[in-house]
Amino acid sequence: MHRHSYSWLLYGLLMLLSAAIQAAEIQVAVDRNPVGINESFQITFTASEEPDGNPEFAPLQENFEILSQQRSTSSSWVNGKSSRTEQWIVRAMAKQAGELFIPPIAFGADSSKPLKLVVNENTAAPQGNDDIFLDVTATPEQPYVQSQVLYTLKLFRKVQITQASLSEPEIKDALVEKLGEDSTYATQVKGVDYWVTERKYAIFPQQSGVFTIAPLILNAEYLSNQRQPRFNGFFNRPDTETRRVASKAITLNVQAVPASFKGPNWLSAESLTLSEAWSDAGLQTKVGEPLTRTLTLSAKGTTVGQLPELLDKTAIDGIKTYPDQPLLKEDKESDGLTALREEKIAFIPSKPGEYTLPALDIVWFNTKTQKTETAHLPSVKLTALAGSTDAQNSAPPATSSTPQEPVTNPMITSPITVTNSSDTRFWQAVSATLALGWLLTIVVFYRRPSGKVSTNKPVERVPETAMEKTLKRACWENNPQAAKQALLQWGKAEFGAESLGAIAAHCPEALREEILALNRLLYSGRNQDWQGRNLWQAFSAKPAAVNSKGKNDDGLEPLFKI
Known about the structure:
InterPro entries: BatD (IPR025738), DUF7939 (IPR057699). Residues 1-23 form the signal peptide. This is BatD family protein. Keywords: Signal. Residues 389-413 are annotated as: Disordered. The chain is of the alpha+beta class. Helix content is 21%, strand content 39%. The strands form ten sheets. Strands 21, 23, 24, 25 and 26 form a five-stranded antiparallel β-sheet that branches. A four-stranded antiparallel β-sheet has the order 1-3-6-5, with no helix packed on it. A hairpin with a 2-residue loop joins strand 25 (327-333) and strand 26. Helix 4 packs antiparallel against helix 5, helix 4 runs antiparallel to helix 8 and helix 7 (509-524) runs antiparallel to helix 8 (533-540). The termini are far apart.
C-alpha cells in the first residue's frame, strides 16, 4: 500500500511536469510606449506554439477601447524542423491617462503576462486648422555631456500624402542615432481627427554649453481634393499640392560633468549592469590550461564608445592573461539606446597554487536619480592544480637560463614565451608562412597600376553620407577599430583600395599621415591611446569634390515609401 501511494504521487508529479512543458508561452508587446490619451496603438500577442484556446480580450475593456482585432498564422521549415507562430493584433485606445497595465489575457489554460503602459495627456495642438504640421520634443532639455537626449518627431496630417521627404536633426558636436522603426497611429486633437507618424532619435551632445537642434523640414505632396479626386486622363495623376512644413527649433543647455563625480572615466546612463561568467564554475584549472572569464557590461542611455575597458591589467605572478577582442553591440529600441561590451579573458597558470583577481568597480552617473553609483564585482580566487608530467615538463622553469623566443599570436595581445623545441619549430613555420604572405602582398601592391580601378571589376559604392557619419562617430569616441572599418569602406568605394596603406597613398598629405598613424597604432596594440579628433579634422578638410559624391540633391531622407 505504501508503494502504491508513492506511485500515485510520482504519477501526479509527472502530470504536473507534462502540463508545464506543454504550456504555450505567449509574448505581449506594444508598438510604442508611452502613448497619448487619444492615440490608437497596437498590442501584439505572439505564441510560438498553439495555445490552449482562443483569447478572451474582455479584461482589456476596463481601461482600453478595442478598435479592431486581427489574427495571423505563419509556418516555417528550417533544418528539418517545423515551427509555427500565431499572432493576435489588437488595435486599442486608452480611456484614461496615467500608468495602466495591459492585463493577462487567457488563452484557455494558457495566459500572457501583464505589460505596463504609460498614457500621457495630448500636448500637441494644430496651428489653426492645418492639414499638416510637425511637433518635436526633446527630453531632457538640460542633459549632462555625453548623456542621452530622446528627440521625438510627430507628423500630424489629415490629408493623404503621396510623397514626402524629411530632414534629420542637426546639432553641433553631437552624435545622432535613429531609434527603431516609424510608427503610425490615429489620434484626435481638439476634436479634429489626425493620422500621426512618429519617429524617434537619440542625441548625445559631446560638449557642454548651449546648443540648438535646428528645425526639421518636411516637403510633402498630397491630394488637393480628398473626397472627389479629379483625373485629367486615364494615365494622368490626380490633382496634388506641395507643402513645405518646418518644426520648431529646440535649445539644449548641456551641463558639464558634475563636480561630485569622482570616477576615473565619465560614464552616464539610465541604468547599468555588470556581470561575469566562468568556463569552470568551480574556478579551478590545471597548470598550462586556460580558465576563461567573460565580463559583460550593459548600459541603457549611452553609446558603446562610452563603456570602459573591463580587463584589469595588473600583472599577477605565476599566471598569464590573454584577452580576446571585445564584443561591442548597440540595440536601438524606441525608448533609447542600449550599449553592451563583452570581454573574454583566458587565464593560464604556470605553476600550481591559489591566485586572487582584484575586485572590479565601474563608477557611473545615474541620470534618473542624479547620483553617482558603483557597479561592483568582488575579488575572485582561482585554483591551479598540478598538470600531467608532460605539461609540467613543457612548462618553462622559473629559473631557466635557456634563451626564450617571444611569439605573438594575432588574436592575443600579450606575447607567449615558448621553450619546447617542437613548439618552436611549429611557430617558426607559422612565422615563415606569414612572412611569405606579407611579401606576396607587397609585390602585388607595387605591381598594380596607379589611378582608377579596372572597369572589369565592379566596385560596390557606399553612400558617403552614411560613411562620414560612421567615421565621425568613431573619431569622437576614439574607437580606432571602428575608424579603420569606416575608412576601408570609403577607400574601397573611392579608390578600390582595400588596406589603410593603399588608401593613404591616394589622400592629401595631412589625411595620409593620420591614416598611416592609425595603421601603426593598430599594429602596436596600444588602441586605448588613440585620439580621433585629428583624423576627423583631416578627413573633413580633404577636397570638396570628393566629399560631394553620393549625396542627394536635397539631403532629405524619404519619410514615406510610395
